[in-house]
Amino acid sequence: MDIKGKNAIVTGASRGIGRAVAVRLASMGANVAVIYSGNESAAAETVEECLKHGISAKAYRCDVSSAEETKNTVQEIRKDFGSVEILVNNAGITKDGLIAFMKEEDFDRVIDVNLKGAFNMIRNTAALMLRSKCGRIVNISSVSGIMGNAGQANYAASKAGVIGLTKSVARELAAKGITCNAVAPGFIETDMTRDIPQENNPLLSSIPLGHMGKTEDVAEAVTFLISSDYITGEVLRVDGGIAM
Ligand code: NAP
Known about the structure:
The protein has helices at 16-27, 40-51, 67-81, 104-132, 143-147, 153-173, 202-205, 215-227; strands spanning 7-11, 31-36, 57-61, 86-89, 135-140, 178-185, 235-238. By secondary structure, the chain is an alpha/beta fold. It has a single domain, classed as NAD(P)-binding Rossmann-like Domain (Rossmann fold). Helix 1 (16-27) runs parallel beside helix 2, helix 1 crosses helix 8 and helix 3 packs parallel to helix 4. The protein is globular, with a radius of gyration of 17 Å.
């Protein structure tokens, strides 16, 4: 699919991976709806970066875990942009803890944002994509969802859930020309991984390529999957080889 002239929604686009995806889509000629949860100034910066590429871009505050907010926001985006052909479900959070001590609310919140958030957004945009007779959905999972990770039972479960969601949606919408894929990053340099100690860290020394990834590495994989007409239901790792 030619990305130029298409309308894209990127969730969690105020910072990190989402911002890199939004800016890369804009650089390829897509108009971008930038969804964020609270960081208005960061979202405005993303919009400014996108606008430099001569496309339309606008920020929308929306908690993706809310069925009502996602419905209203997608309706607003449709009014502003006219159609939606691309959805990147990137918004995500961590609330790590060992299983014996993990609070119920921390388990629920991570599932609600990371998994239900993607479900909410797909549910609300699928009808628009069906109308456009074309669509590209990319969900950001994680190597934690493939391999599991001690201290991340909630997060790994949400990200494994995203893979099941991706494959089910891919099967369901394939006949309508809509693809759905996932990208599973490893350790990427963002606010989420800011506190990981860099020195003598066995987690980082387990990366075959020997260093953390950059947000642009993930954005490149996302736009590759969006461009492809014949890849669906795939989980593309961008992890320096951790989960091979
Ligand atoms: P980040 O820098 O912490 O940014 C998170 C983004 O999600 C922000 O834009 C934030 O908005 C938004 N967000 C959080 N909760 C939200 C909600 N309820 N509704 C809407 N937006 C919400 O994260 P990141 O490191 O770029 O990660 C992006 C995605 O990649 C996540 O799904 C994460 O799980 C996944 N991932 C990251 C890594 C990594 O190493 N960084 C590895 C594997 C997977 P505000 O700015 O408004 O708070």
